[in-house]
């Protein structure tokens, strides 16, 4: 990129933009201070103040977040118009509010991403402006009338692709490519699936699409929140800077395991158990487990209650009838409990009436409806009746249901008759040891079927309100008691006191703390939150049960789903998009494809493509846009020296990689030894991980240790190897046991 005269001129413009940005920040902060300081508002006024304050605080955060790379491009249109393109839109307050800077998401910015010499979109020139801090460091032009640079000749893109990795994903707003732009701005309102090989920018595109949707539908999405789902916490940390750098902070990033408020899903369990729990059949198991908790006396048994010195009993058939009637209401289990209890008491009352009040002559009842009601009222107060109702139709939390299911071979057998004994044994857990990520969709399923038992919450809320009333009354009494008594006759009645204006109820409302959490925080704490849009990354890994949970979180089915079927590593993951999404949206999803590999240099991409052919000969590998000049290499090492050799190589690569980052990717079984060796030789900027943890991440150099071990370690081992080989942006080394050549195609290195 050159700077020179153009650079000086752009520097002037950019300086002006930053001056305007500073002024906007100052104005917005002042308004926020004023709003926060406003007093004397009624209850309604306070609520409105909080909304305005949250809106202004969001605007301040947005203005602060765009400091770096505020302006990165300019479009010169054929009619002489100039458009500066940047992270946000800024208007000129001195001249008719002309746009000084156009938000990259605005329609007017689109030609910057899609114009070519063939289709110029009325643009004459595209200018890339590079800045460091507030200083313009380079300017480069593409003149469309002279033939715009091909993709392979775009230096702004190559600078970004060749830059050393920092361990945090960066936004690509200055270099979005046309096929990516089309997906980011897609009008499709429903489910959009983005399929693409590794390094095609799926994650980048999905995050920029979230930012785009927030821009175009801010009013609605800011309130209903965008949820971004990723495979693990490391990945979410890796992508965590992208949306804030685009000025979007009100987004919730979470793994599926984090989507059941109050549950920490940190239990590690065998992949086979996770796969089993992810099967669609588990929905039926949970439903059967709920029904199994609605108990009646065993064959030949009966329900017997001591009441009023007598035993009142219901036989099994009557209990079955009561249960069937309660089920007919088709309510969630907990919500049906009061109904069941009412029906049970009615039957007990009838049985009791039959004992006390049968006419010896006619056999009919001697008791009136009113008598029956009295007996029922007595039964309602009888603790034995309450205990029987609880035993037959217990109020259950999802956690209790699942923990007691896992803990009981009898319950497992009753709820999961179609599972094999070995599968049921895999679900069995003698003692409760916490929850795994695969348990979360099951807890969610249970929550749906059980319904909310919010009696405790309601009682707590009532107690709190009561407490506020007492406080308010005391406050009013103090105000009344401390009023001036120095009145002339008749004067007192002319003066209004706090008591005249307010009653305790109204004052209590004012004491009620406003909910100061952001919409994203509130969404995170609410299992029933309906997100406005859901982005799912590495979507191929999700189990059918996880999809059920996600679909519940997004009733509007406004979703961007990105992934690569060829990278599926989880046993319960997707074999195809149709199979995965069919049960939820049929064929009502749009499939878009990304075909260019921005991560891998051509030399490594070629090797990865050979592995892909072995996974599925019908799949086409994405085309690489650049060469690194370094062919991947293979190093045979005696088996017992693999860890040491990998550590030495990592240290050497680290010394040569500048500020870059290195990964050692190996079978899970080797991680402990490798971690120790690498930790001693090259403690920082080197990660040691298995392919599953490496999913979605990227490094300047990758050292794959024991590739055959990776393949052997899981039924989807070849997919895992594919993931490992597709993580580097520059260099790839393969270390293997010297006693054997690795399996093809790595043997050809
Ligand atoms: N238009 C672009 N400009 C600059 N960099 C880009 C562009 N598109 C993608 N990249 C970079 O390419 C790399 C790969 O992108 P990303 O991680 O989004 O790919 P992916 O398809 O999600 O890969 P995987 O399937 O391996 O997770 C990232 O460093 C990303 O920033």
UniProtKB/TrEMBL annotation:
Q: What are this entry's molecular-function GO terms?
A: 3'-5' DNA helicase activity; ATP binding; DNA binding; hydrolase activity
Cellular-component GO terms for this entry: cytosol
- The answer to whether the entry has keyword Oxidoreductase is no
InterPro entries tied to this protein: DNA_helicase_UvrD/REP, P-loop_NTPase, UvrD-like_ATP-bd
Record's keyword terms, sorted: ATP-binding, Helicase, Hydrolase, Nucleotide-binding
**UvrD-like helicase ATP-binding domain span:** 175-601
- Does the keyword section mention Nucleotide-binding? yes
GO biological process annotations for this chain's record?
Answer: recombinational repair
| Record: residues binding ATP | 196-203
Can you name this protein? Helicase
